[in-house]
Amino acid sequence: MRRTVAAVAAVAAVLLAGCVPQTPPSPTPSPTPTFMCTPEAGGTEAPCSEQEYQKMKAKDALYAEAEQVYRTYQAEYAKVIRKGGSTTLSPGLKATIGSPEVSASVLRGLRYFHDNGLRLKGEASVIASAAREPSRERGGSVVAMTFCVDGRKTTVFKGSKRQGSGIVGIDTVYFALRDGSLRMASVDSKVVSSCGV
Asked: Are 80 and 94 in contact (CB under 8 A)?
C-alpha cells in the first residue's frame, strides 16, 4: 500500500510540475548582418556598413556598364573601318560617345581610312585587359578605366596591297552620364609594344 501511495504521489508531483508556469527562455538576439566590401581599386574584402556595401554595389555596376560601353565602341569602330572608314559617325558609335572632343577624335580615324582607301582585315582586335582607375576624374566623369587593346592580328590594306599590321594601344577612358546613359567623355591614348599580360 505504501508503494502505491508513493507511486501516486510521484505521478501527482510530475503532473503538477507540468502545470507550473515555466519562465520562457530569453530570446537570443538575432545577429546583426555583416556586409563585406572590396576596395574600389581591388584588394581584400573587409566588413563594412550596409550603406558602404550599397555604395560599392552601385559603383561596381557603373564599372561593368563602362566596360560594356567601351566594348561596344571597339566593335562598332572595327566594323566601320573594315568597310573602309567613313565621313560620319555611325549611330552605334554615337551611342557610346559623350563629348565633342571624343566625337572629333574618332571621326578623324574614320576619315583617315576613308580618305586613303584603307580597310582593316584579319582577326578582330582583342581587349586584353581592363582596369579600374578610381583615382582619376575628368570633366564630371563618374568612373575611369584603362584598356589595353591588342590589334596585332589585324592587317591594314589599300586595295589588295598590304600596308601594315595593327597596333597595341592603351586607352584611359573617362565615362560620364549623358541623358541617363554612361558614355565616353574623354580618352587618353598611347601606342605600346604589348599589353604585358
From this structure: no
Identity of the residue numbered 147:
F
CA torsion sign, 162 to 93 to 194 to 127?
negative
Could you tell me the three cell numbers for 58? 552601385
Q: What is the chain's Cα-based Rg?
A: 33
- Report how far residue 119's alpha carbon sits from residue 160's, in angstroms, rounded to the nearest whole number: 10
Tell me, letter by letter, the H, E, C secondary structure of 80-93.
Answer: HHHCCCCCCCCHHH
Please give, one letter per residue, the 3-state secondary structure of 86-148.
Answer: CCCCCHHHHCCECCHHHHHHHHHHHHHHHHCCEEEEECCCEEEEEEECCCCCCCCCCEEEEEE
Cell numbers linked to 90 = 555611325
Q: Are 184 and 96 in contact (CB under 8 A)?
A: yes
Question: 10 Å Cβ neighbour count for 32?
Answer: 7
- Phi, psi (deg, nearest 5) at residue 137: -150, 145
Burial of 121 (0-12, 13-18, 19+ CB in 10 A): exposed
pLDDT tens, 174-188?
Answer: 999 998 899 999 999
Strand partners, 183: 176
Q: What is the grid cell recorded at 52?
A: 558602404
* pLDDT tens sequence across 109-138: 999 999 999 998 888 899 999 999 998 999
